[in-house]
Amino acid sequence: MTIVQDIEARGLRHCETTALGVLLRHEGLDLSEPMLFGLGSGLSFVYWDSKSMAFPFLGGRVKPFDLTRNLAARLGLTLTVEETTSPRKAWANVAAPIDAGRPVGLQLDCYHLDYFRSKVHFGGHVVAMYGYDEQDVYLVDTDQQGGAVRTGRAGLALARAERGPMTARNRSFTIALPARPLSCQDRIIPAIKHCADAFLTPPIANLGHRGIEKAGKRVPGWLLRAAEPQRDLPQAALLMEKGGTGGALFRALYRDFLGECAQLIDDGDLRAGHRLYAEAAVLWTDVATLIAKAGESGDAGHLEQAGVILHDLSRIEKDAMQVLRRCASTASA
């Protein structure tokens, strides 16, 4: 058995921040999960639907691995990424860092992991790996999935090699701190500005505040869109609240990030943005509750009500990001 020493196998709420936390704590940098999420400019929104999809998808974060790239660039971290189509090289890419005493991050499809109770394909899942033996590998996943867990090496190989939406070719990565680490506090405003700019000026109507407005128009028709409403709608609601989002489709994480920032930086616009995202987080939980009720009861009235709230959320989040962008512009002037 090969195990990296001094690993704090702490599962957090979101998979990518969980893995980042493991890797960074091992390097000597311990940041809260909201701070990891916010410094990585992780908040976003997408309404994703196509004829090939069984049911629409509501996403509340940036694309898988963008958060990691953003965080590394912002803090001056050395991010070493390996990808390959070779199973032999894929294993070597993770075994080598672990043999050298460093944990490694993996992007994979969670469907093939032994410990996952809900068997759903999702190719953007991220875990930290810190050990292996002849049969199993030792991982850190979200708190919801058990934190410190293990899975068979054969299943891990399938998970890493899976192809489909959001997958990567056996992607693995390590992180190293710079010789002179940057001040996290100094990077807060650039991170907020980056997130606000992307949210306010999305290239297509499915993203950002425009995407939330589109969801407000489409969600009321979900009973007709769903092949099995009693399954599809509660599952969509579950993903919004419990699917590694930290609750409220990641808005609770961003609210808490802004709350931490407001304690470090004295700025009225920053505090206003925090208040608006506190309001938004509650409303996103209300939307998820209404979607679940609609699936369970077949009552379209719940979806109509959810649509009204989504229209309000589009406005609230647009206002919040405009305030936060102003804060960023003032602070960087």
TrEMBL record:
Quote the InterPro entries the UniProt record gives: BtrH_N, DUF4872
Report the domain of life of the source organism.
Bacteria
The chain positions of domain Butirosin biosynthesis protein H N-terminal read 14-142
Q: Name one Pfam family in it.
A: DUF4872
Where the record annotates domain DUF4872, the positions are 155-324
Protein name per Swiss-Prot or TrEMBL? Lantibiotic ABC transporter
- Organism annotation: Nonomuraea glycinis
